[in-house]
Design brief:
243 residues, mainly alpha, 55% helix
């Protein structure tokens, strides 16, 4: 293997498998996906590159939306990469946005995660400022003022450098005055992710995936023209990219 040329497209099959798990709503596969997310940084760089969120957010959402305790356990494990831990945070944020009747459940999730991280702030295998920044972002995105005491505690303890996320006053302002929810629809589900894996020149798909702010969006699966399985064929329907 060391002497063989590795083609980039040959490294995509684990991502394809996870995308299929998500498309099939195979919730029983979540432990396998979390185990994939536990691997070393070198392992992740080879199989995922440096952008795991873009590939895995929606599959993990579909697998984990009824298993938030498993995500919490993963986030609070030592030595897991912050990027994948942040992915789990984004999934819970999406549950809060897309399933508003579960808001209290998600708030409790965030409160427990933040409390545990604060209590273990001196553990370098657990604490990560970038993870805290992502939690703050999602609290702001959901106007989760209920988390304000814990977020303030993060700043009181200097756990987030100002250059990463601004001052506490700035955080507080956005927390109480969030951006408008009238932003791009989050139809960047599994199918857009798969298209981006196959065609890096898909500008509209890219825009829809990254363009909506702070995940303030609604997932409208009924708008899709094609099923995820259509995107497993060599020919991606180009008219799908048209507005």
């Amino acid at each position: 293997m060391k002497n063989e040329k590795i083609f980039e497209e040959h490294t995509y099959f684990p991502l394809h498998a996870i995308l299929l798990f998500g498309a099939l709503r195979a919730e029983e596969k979540l432990p396998d996906v979390l185990n994939f997310m536990r691997q070393s940084e070198a392992f992740q760089e080879f199989w995922c590159g440096d952008l795991p969120y873009q590939y895995l957010i929606w599959p993990v959402y579909h697998l984990a939306q009824q298993q938030l305790d498993a995500l919490k356990a993963y986030v609070l494990e030592e030595d897991n990469l912050w990027s994948f831990r942040s992915l789990a945070v984004h999934v819970v944020s999406q549950v809060m946005i897309l399933q508003p009747h579960r808001r209290e459940e998600c708030l409790t999730w965030f409160q427990e995660v933040l409390s545990y991280l604060i209590q273990n702030q001196d553990n370098p295998r657990l604490m990560d400022s970038h993870l805290l920044v992502d939690i703050i972002d999602q609290a702001q995105a959901n106007q989760a003022s209920e988390l304000e005491p814990l977020l303030k505690e993060i700043y009181t303890r200097n756990l987030v450098p100002i250059h990463l996320h601004g001052s506490w006053e700035e955080v507080q302002e956005i927390l109480h005055n969030p951006i408008s929810r009238n932003v791009l629809q989050a139809d960047a589900d599994i199918k857009i992710v798969y298209v981006n894996l196959k065609d890096g020149k898909a500008p509209v798909a890219y825009e829809k995936l990254f363009g909506y702010e702070a995940f303030q969006a609604r997932l409208e699966e009924t708008r899709y023209k094609y099923s995820v399985f259509d995107f497993l064929s060599p020919d991606v329907p180009q008219d799908w990219f048209e507005e």
